[in-house]
Structure formats: C-alpha cells, structure tokens
Design a protein that fits this description.
Blueprint: H1 2-13, H2 18-35, E1 65-69, E2 75-77, E3 80-81, H3 87-97, E4 103-107, H4 113-125, E5 131-134
Parallel strand pairs: 1-4, 4-5
Antiparallel strand pairs: 1-2, 2-3
Length: 139
Amino acid sequence: MALGKRRNSEEESEIDLTPMLDVVFIMLIFFIVTASFVNESGLDVNRPPTTDQPPPPEDSSKRNIVFRISESNELLLDGRRIDIRSVRANVERMQAENPEAKVIIDAHPKSKTELYVLIADQAREAGVYDISLATDNKK
C-alpha cells in the first residue's frame, strides 16, 4: 500500500505546461496582429527643394500677405501684432487691394503648429488658397 501512495503523490506533483504555452502563443499572436495596425497620426509635408538663389525682387503691386509667428507664438502682420481672430478680415482687405496676393506664413521653428493651421484656415475662408509656409533654420 505504501507503494501505491508514492505513485499518486508523484503524479500529482507534475504540472502540465501545455495550456500555459497555448495562452502565451495566443497572446503573442494577438500583440503581433494589433501592433501592425497601429497608425500614427500626423501631417504629411512635401518640402520643396531648397535653393541658394535669392528670391526675385518684389514688385510693390504684387505684394504678398506675410504673417510672422514668433517664438513666443505672437502673430505679426506688417510689423504689428494682431489677434488670430482678425486674420480673415486682414486677408480680405489686403486681397481686395491686390487680388493676386499670396499668403505666406513665416513661422519660427519653435512656434506652435496650431497657429499655422488657424491662419491657413482663416485665409482659405477669405478666399486665398495659395498659402505657403516659410521657416528659417537659423532662428
């Protein structure tokens, strides 16, 4: 009888690892499948080629509308500080004076992207669709 009890205790002490391995493989497959479908959000930017040539001389009748965004996120138009809510009115006024004017947003590299988007949206609402972004890496 003592021999029979010894075999039962040895059989009970063995752990079957098959179910645990099945769970680990299922979790591995789950993480591999879900990781491949994660999309990072962002804006796709197509940068134009850089040139060392200076820009052509600006004709006073073809003056562009240039907004400057400082490092502290202040918005400047013709050297004066303006509010973001007045962008559309200023663009409409300046476009009435010069219908071929383009909007150029000169943003500091450390300024917020949100301001660029707000200015571009306001300019489109004013009817100007030719909007450019200018930055200076030396700032």
